[in-house]
Every structure is written in structure tokens, then in C-alpha cells.
Amino acid sequence: ARPAGKIRDPALFLSVAVIWVFLAVFILFPLSKILILTFEKDGLPSLAALLEILGRRSHYTAFWNSLLLGTLVGLAGTALGFLFAFTAVRANLSKRWTAFLDLAIILPLISPPFTTAIAMIFSFGPRGLITYELLGLRGFNVYGLHSTLFAETVTCFPIAYLTLKAILAGIDPNVEDMAFSLGASRWRVFRTVTLPLTVPGLANSFLLLFAASLADFATPLILAGNSFPVLPTDAYLQITGLFDLKGGAVLSFVLLVPAFVVFVLQRFWVSRKAYVTITGRSGAQTEIKSVSPAMGRLLLAVCILLSLLIVYFYALLFYASVVMALGANHHLTLKHYRVVFTEGMNAIRDTLLIAGVGMLSGGLYGVVVGYLVAKKRFVSRAAMEVVSMINYSLPGTIVGIAYLIAFNSPPLVITGTAAIIVAAYVFRYGATGIRTTVAILQQIDPSIEEASHSLGAGTVATFRRITIPLVLPGLFAGLGVVFIRSMTAISATIFLVSIHWTLITVRILEKMTELELGVAAAFSVLVVAIVLAGTSGIGL
Question: Which residues of 335-348 are buried (b: 16+ CB within 10 A; e: fewer)?
Fold first, then answer.
């Protein structure tokens, strides 16, 4: 008999304990600090701070503007993502066109979130290439809801594309073939069969894009201006402009409410398995029915036009980085890159170091947590899965403010160090590796690991020799996402940089506010080049 009190699997117990310590310190503790700061006054529970903030008309307007912008971005981005995904899966594209569309779609994913905003100013600003140079328009107003919506939609729709492409490709062809055999037209099959089967993906895409819009403060900061204030930007200015941590915490809590609703919907509504078409039963298989040749050409033409617009934005960004001043002096120069590689070298070194450490730490974190959640049974397994996804589901502004408040005073003071930035990246973006690892492990027959245990191998040996080789795709997915986000994110880390540690994205935003647009463009081009090189090296 096993001695009383003896732990059956010490390695599992230690792993779970260590992970929970990290989750408590870097996820639960920062959020609790926001809640305490929001609902406390003079050491006593109070709603005074919350009522004071909500009583200001400017913040009230910003809150509803944020919901409006997020809803519009969710709708427009999901529609655009579905258009691209449906074209890629059903229009019978050649490899050449597929590669072109994929290239255009990946550009917004591997660049800072406000890159499109910079290109919008270069194109439609007071001295824009299109409005001023080509059309001769004077005083054209590029700032406001319309430009912010357009920029965020272009930036975010690739997320919807990736989600919906997998769902459309996974629809069992037999389901649609049965409708065709009953005499239904292509349009009727699309309307009554294909589209309803994509409802979970459409809803999930909308929620993801809504959350992404809530997290973006940089694009509204550049394009929305005073005419369309939003809550993330208000929270940023409350802290950086007014040095009001409590006010920033309260605004973060207000932003937390819609973010929490999105998190609940994603987890408990969208993930319900009510639209299953892949049953595992064998039967006569048919090929996916493509759209008609004429419709395929029309869809491809629309996608090509939109892709060319994206490519144009990035080509314009490069052009702006190699001319004296776009819209005023188009003589070629490398002066902007000289600034990048002199004044910006500290930011480049810091970003690469933080991205490298964050990538390795986040990849390992994702695989370990994903393995525990998918393959092990312990009391707090479900809670660990939920808590590990919280930071990923929250807008980056909330995470950044929470870290600033939590780690700016004892018991753990790491504000101003690289550690706080790495932690923000690992526990926010490492969640992607968790989800990928869980998905992979759910497809692995448990008997493989059971055989290892029956031969006397312990948990650590089985994990090292069998599980890790099987979950390498999840590891590399985690590595890639953390690296990309470490190079491009700003919403969380803008609050965490210091005179000792800074990031390229922060320098880009600084140059934008200082109207050094050529240098901002050069930094942006550098980020895209580094991310392309890094992801190629990882094998993505």
C-alpha cells in the first residue's frame, strides 16, 4: 500500500505548483491590483472613483465610441476575412495567386498595429500622395472614425481569414454534395448549407476582432484625434499625460467589462460543438464543389484589388523611408535609416533581446501548460486552463496598466526592467502555444504514453522522449507568435518601457508624435524585415 501522504507523481505535483505560482503572480495578482485600486478609497471599499470617472462626459463618450468602433471593426473585418477565405478555398486558385494573397494578408500580421495608420497619413494626410499630390485636394481631413475604422479593419481582418479558412476547408464535401444532388443551386447551397456551417467561425472571428479593436490604442491615437476619443487612448493619456495611476486603473476596469463579456462568449458560446460535419465515419468521398468560373474570377478580382491596396501601403511605407520628406521633397536619401541605426540602436538591441528571451520562455510555457491541461488529471486543471488564457483575452492596455500598478511597489518591484516586458509577452502571447499544444495532444492516442509508463518510464522521461517530439508544431507555433508579438506589440508594453529598456514600436510612436514620419517609416520597414527573417528561421 502507498504510504499515507505520499505524492503519487512528484513531477506532476511540482510542475502544477510552479505553474500556479507563475499564474498567480503574473495574471491574478495584477488584475487584483486593478480591482483594489478601482474599488478602494482610504483603505475602505468605495465606488467613488468609479462614479467620478464615469460621471465625466468625455470618458462616457469614449466608452461608447470604443464599443461602436469594436463592433464595426468586428463586422467589417469578419466580412473581409470571409471573402478572402472563401476565395482561397472555393475559387480554385492557382498556386501563384494563392501565394500572392497569402503574402498580402501576412503583412499586417507581422508589422506594428499602427503601420496602416502611418500609411493612411502618407496617402490621405494634408500632404498625402493621393489627396495632395494626385488629386490636388487641400485641407482633406483624414482623421476621425472613418479612417480609424479602415486602418483597424485592414490590420485585423487577417485574423478572421485564418480562422475562417480552416473552417471552410474542414467542411465535409458530402454535406454540400447531398444538397446538390437534390437539385439545389450553388447560391442556395451556399446560403442554406455552407454559410450556416461557418456560423461558429464567423462569431469567433467577430469576437476576436472586437477584442483586438478594444486593445488598440495606437491607431486611434494617430488617426481618431479629438473628434473620436476611445477608452484605450483615454487610459493611456490618463497615465502618461496626467500621471494618474488610479484614474488609469478605473478606466481599465471599465474596459474590462466588455472584454470579459467577449471572453465568456468565446469560451462558452462559440466553442459549443453544435456544427459537427466531420464524424470520422467512412463513406463515399467527393471533392469540394468550387464556385462557378465566372464567380471565381470575380471573387479573385476583388481580393486582388484589396491585396494590391495592402501591398501599396507597405510599398509607400518603404518609399517614405528612403525620400527626404514624402509630399514635400522626394529626393532619395538614407538619412532616416542613419537615425534608425544610430539613435535607435538601443531600441533595436533591447527589442531583439527581449523578443529572443520571450520567444523561448513563451514557447516552453505554452507547451508545458498545454501538456498539463490536455494530458494530466489534477484538481485545478480546468481552472488552470481558464486562468492561463485571461491575459490573452484582455486588451493589452489593461494588461500593461495592471503590470505597471502591480510591480511598481513591494513585494515584487520589476518596473523599469526587461523582466516585466518579457513577463507581459510570455503570459499574454504564450497562450497561443497552449491552445495549439492542446489541439495537437487531443489527436494523440493516450495508449502511446501509457505504453511508455507501463515500461517503467516516469512522467519526465515520457514527456521528454515521446510528448515533446509530437508537440513540436505547437512549440514552434508558440515560438513564432511570441516572437512576432514581441517585435510588433505596443498596447501592453507602452506602459512598461523605461530609460533603460525600450522597444522599436515605442520609438515608432514617438517619431509619429514628433512628426518625424520618415524615421517612423524606416523603423516600421526594419520591424517587418526582422520578423520575416525570424519567422523564416523558426520555420513558420
Answer: ebbebbeeebeebb
